Each structure stands twice: as structure tokens, then as C-alpha cells.
Amino acid sequence: MVKRTSFEDADCPVARSLDVLGDWWSLLIIRDALLGKRRFSEFQKSLGCAKNILTVRLRTLVDHGILTTAPASDGSAYQEYLLTPKGRGVFPVLVALRQWSEEFGDVSGIATLLVDRHTGRPVRKLELHADDGRLLGLGDTELRPNPKLKRRRSA
After folding, report:
1. Domain architecture of the chain: domains with CATH
2. Strand, helix or coil for residue 56
3. Are strands 79-83 and 67-71 parallel, antiparallel or unpaired?
4. Residue 61: closest CA among 87, 79, 97
5. What is the value of pTM for the model shown?
6. Res. 155: pLDDT tops 60
7. Which residues have a Cβ under 8 Å from the Cβ of 27 and sit 6 or more positions away?
8. d(CA 27, CA 33)
């Protein structure tokens, strides 16, 4: 098996995020946890992935503080996987992926709609806004050096 390259220490925050979240099983586990699944058997049944793959992905998500484990709420000998605040922070990422798929993919087989629980109306598309409220597009943004980061000096 080919060893995956680690982006844990990359300068790019997108690469660092992908180091933890970059495989589809991890994102689908987090999706299922956001939908209320907590037990290994629930994840396995929902995803249909091999138990060894699920075990590794769950362990990685726990190690990175996205999930935590707790004794089962029903008092049984099982453990449950619970989202941490860091894990719940992935919610807007999954919404963005969903909305991208709905806009540019084949929507004929999508069985669910993301709606506001209070109104029952579809959720508006995510948008990027400046701190003054202006809507931003790609041409309105740029990457600049972080002034708080000490520059590495070449020898």
C-alpha cells in the first residue's frame, strides 16, 4: 500500500485541513455524526465500508479531536462517538460541498433537501462576505503573507 503524504506541517491551511478530512470516508463519518449516528455499527451500516477502514478512520478523527468517545448512553458496554466543537465546525464545509454538488452535479438522484428546521424552506446558498457585509467573489480576494508568522530564513 502506498503511504499517504502528510500535509500536517504545510504552509497552506487547505492542505492542513485535507490532511485530516481529505478522504471521503472521514467526511461521510462526520456527515453521519451530524445526522445523529453515534455507534460503530450505525456508521458501518450507513456507509457499508469495511470494518478495518472504519476503525482506522474513527481512530484518526478521535486523535484529531473531531470526535470523542463516551460510554454508550443506554448503559451498555459499547462506546459512542460524539462530535466535538471542532467536529461540528465541519458542518459549513459539508453544506458547501452539498451545495456545490447540487449546483454542478446531477441532482436527479438526490433524495433529501437541506431546509431550515424552523421554516421548512431550503437553506440559502453559502456566500463569502467582507467584514463590512459586501459579497465577495474570487476576484475580490487575494492571499497575503501573514504578518504574525516569522519568516524562515534560508541558510
Report:
1. 13-140 (1.10.10.10)
2. helix
3. antiparallel
4. 87
5. 0.85
6. no
7. 21, 90, 94, 97
8. 10
